[in-house]
């Protein structure tokens, strides 16, 4: 039996970042995950400036963006914004492309050796007001004052604890991810490109092209069902499927070849119920999901982890016990709540803005581009000495960063 202050179950982005922050703060912690190296996984592949700003509060932004053991994060250049085959704006870059598994493994490399790393699966958990007990697949047992549940979509441990996952919007969006190269071989004219749908009936949010290392990555966000015939077309003949959806895209990117497989991931929106319990706290996707099309999943994870590790865990460990009233302070944290509410609101707003038909929605779509162009023009006027752009906080920040 091993004893620690904090046991972190799950070493994805939320869990590994949590373990890294706690370990660097000198808080005894144990990280539990069955994978010695995080496997390939289609999730976040881009960090915007707002998300990097949150990550900066953890002290891990430099490691995440420039780790030499991986390709590292690739910052884009000037980003083209386009629709109907026409470029409507060119904006300074500021986003970083990095594959999710690379990002997670970078974060794992930041976990100091003082944190015990257990390669096993947590199969049983018992919680209480004072001590928590975790049984592992290798037969060992870990006791801790606090358990941080960061095991993403897994529900087995939550079922044991009576924590329910309620799906609020099944298959809310679908992400398609693939690499492209020009055919015949020649450089693209753009460093990064965001292309918006030509018709609401296409049920598409946007296509974003951005560099990761030497590759040009494509993330295509759509609102469809998994049995849609167009998805089969994208699996078997992606070039034809891509230009069938966006006929005028060829004007900007020319003929292209899709390199490697097309990865497809549907995303449900869900929330947890019955999670306010003594001794255990849920972070990231273990608590609630976000829509990949809205692009705030990484920011949601970083907000959860930053508030938990920088504010709440040090306060909780300073006094005996780990009753539910302590845990509730995290779920009621105003910064966390505000980001959660914005994440959910933006997920539904973007879906409606993309696929709803009618005059009012058409007007809103046009206003969206006018507002975006106005923000871009204001940024160009207010260029800072270091080349960064000033962008107002709030919804304009979200619009500016995600486009």
How does this structure look, described?
With 403 residues, this protein is of the alpha/beta class. It has three domains: 2-74 and 98-167 and 269-351, FAD/NAD(P)-binding domain; 170-268, D-Amino Acid Oxidase, subunit A, domain 2 (D-Amino Acid Oxidase, Chain A, domain 2, 2-Layer Sandwich); 359-402, no CATH class. 35% of the residues lie in helices and 28% in strands. It is built from 13 helices and 17 strands. The protein has helices spanning 13-24, 49-56, 61-66, 100-109, 156-160, 229-236, 238-245, 250-253, 297-317, 324-331, 334-355, 359-381, 395-402; strands at residues 2-9, 29-33, 46-47, 74-75, 79-83, 86-91, 96-97, 116-119, 122-126, 132-136, 141-149, 164-182, 192-195, 204-212, 215-222, 256-273, 280-282. Strands 1, 2, 8, 9, 10, 11 and 17 form a seven-stranded mixed beta sheet that branches. A seven-stranded mixed beta sheet has the order 6-5-13-14-15-12-16. Strand 5 (79-83) and strand 6 form a beta hairpin. Helix 1 runs parallel beside helix 9 (297-317), helix 9 packs antiparallel against helix 10 and helix 9 (297-317) packs antiparallel against helix 11. The longest helix has 23 residues, at 359-381. It is elongated, with a radius of gyration of 22 Å. The model is unreliable at 383-403 (pLDDT under 50).
């Amino acid at each position: 039996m091993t004893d620690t202050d904090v046991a972190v179950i799950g070493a994805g982005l939320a869990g590994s970042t949590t373990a890294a922050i706690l370990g660097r703060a000198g808080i005894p912690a144990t990280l539990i995950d069955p994978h010695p190296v995080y496997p390939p996984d289609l999730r976040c592949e881009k960090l915007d400036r707002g998300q990097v700003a949150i990550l900066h509060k953890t002290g891990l932004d430099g490691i995440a963006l420039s780790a030499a053991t991986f390709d590292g994060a690739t910052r884009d250049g000037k980003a083209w914004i386009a629709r109907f085959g026409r470029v409507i704006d060119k904006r300074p870059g500021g986003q970083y492309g990095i594959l999710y598994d690379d990002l997670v493994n970078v974060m794992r490399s930041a976990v100091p050796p003082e944190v015990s790393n257990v390669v096993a699966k947590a199969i049983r958990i018992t919680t209480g007001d004072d001590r928590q007990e975790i049984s592992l697949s290798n037969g060992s047992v870990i006791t801790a004052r606090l358990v941080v549940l960061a095991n993403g979509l897994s529900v087995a441990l939550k079922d044991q604890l009576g924590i329910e996952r309620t799906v609020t919007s099944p298959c809310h969006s679908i992400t398609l991810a693939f690499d492209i190269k020009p055919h015949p071989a020649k450089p693209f004219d753009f460093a990064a490109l965001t292309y918006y749908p030509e018709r609401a009936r296409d049920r598409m949010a946007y296509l974003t092209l951005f560099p990761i290392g030497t590759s040009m990555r494509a993330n295509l966000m759509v609102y469809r069902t998994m049995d849609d015939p167009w998805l089969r077309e994208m699996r078997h003949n992606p070039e034809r499927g891509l230009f069938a959806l966006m006929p005028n895209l060829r004007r900007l990117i020319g003929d292209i070849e899709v390199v490697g497989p097309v990865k497809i991931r549907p995303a449900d929106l869900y929330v947890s119920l019955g999670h306010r319990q003594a001794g255990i706290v849920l972070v990231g996707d273990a608590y609630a999901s976000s829509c990949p099309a809205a692009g705030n999943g990484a920011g949601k994870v970083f907000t959860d982890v930053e508030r938990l590790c920088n504010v709440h865990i040090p306060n909780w460990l300073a006094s005996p016990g780990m009753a539910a009233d302590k845990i509730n302070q995290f779920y009621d944290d105003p910064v966390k709540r505000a980001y959660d509410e914005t994440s959910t609101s933006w997920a539904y707003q973007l879906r409606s803005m993309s696929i709803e038909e009618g005059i009012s929605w058409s007007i809103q779509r046009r206003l969206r581009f006018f507002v975006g162009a106005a923000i871009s023009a204001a940024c160009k006027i207010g260029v800072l000495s270091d080349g960064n752009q000033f962008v107002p906080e709030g919804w304009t920040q979200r619009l500016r960063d995600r486009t």
